[in-house]
Design goal:
single chain; Glutaconate Coenzyme A-transferase; 3-stranded mixed beta sheet; elongated
Length: about 220
């Protein structure tokens, strides 16, 4: 969906440096959005470590001279990727707490996914000149009984893996907006994250922040 959105946008002269090559990148290339000519590394090349998608992706890859496959220690190395100016990193998350810690791997101790290269690209975008890192997640989820819960928590669920540490997190996005946590104090982070939580949970999160003594500067 993201690749299709970019393909339909007014963006142009984009470059691709990624761990996983997927169908969305094909949509972007076929729409004329990708040239790679503004990249400081591997100019004009689509850099990736592995590919996973439909037959459309593999047909696109066949004998394609614009592709450059590298080991993951090249594609994901934060120092290497950060040499690309205005690097944009977009990742998903399962939950985030009010201090800015991100979990993208587990629900408590129940493992759902691996970390992959998420932290690598978060750090790379953070250190890229003009770079931006986005962590995207729905504001809520439903459990098996149908009860709705907030994905923004006072503190991380006990046992959850910390995928991204709070000093590295920049933009966090839900359906209620986006906030930039870079450079914010703990109480500022809490207030910013509550502002993009589902409205039904904001008062509850304020109470949690007060208990943690991270609500507003006076606390």
């Amino acid at each position: 969906a993201l690749g299709q959105m970019i393909a339909a946008s007014e963006l142009k002269d984009l470059g691709i440096h990624t761990e996983m090559l997927v169908d969305g990148f094909v949509d972007m290339v076929e729409a004329g959005k990708v040239t790679g000519m503004r990249k400081q590394l591997d100019r004009g090349r689509i850099v990736f470590a592995f590919a996973a998608g439909t037959q459309k992706l593999y047909d696109f890859m066949k004998d394609n001279p614009s592709l450059a496959g590298y080991p993951v220690d090249y594609t994901n190395h934060p120092f290497i990727a950060s040499q690309i100016d205005q690097l944009i990193s977009i990742n998903s998350a399962l939950e985030i707490d009010l201090t800015g810690q991100v979990c993208s791997e587990s629900a408590g101790s129940n493992m759902i996914s691996g970390a992959g290269g998420q932290l690598d690209f978060v750090e790379a975008a953070y250190n890229s000149k003009g770079g931006k890192s986005f962590i995207c997640l729905p504001s809520t989820y439903k459990d098996k009984a149908g009860k709705v819960h907030s994905r923004i928590k006072g503190l991380m669920t006990l046992g959850s893996a910390i995928t991204d540490t709070r000093p590295t997190v920049q933009y966090v996005v839900t359906e209620y907006g986006k906030v930039n946590l870079k450079g914010l104090s703990t109480w500022q982070r809490a207030e910013a994250l509550i502002s993009i939580a589902h409205p039904d949970f904001r008062d509850e999160l304020i109470v949690e922040a007060q208990k943690l003594k991270i609500w507003r500067k006076k606390s």
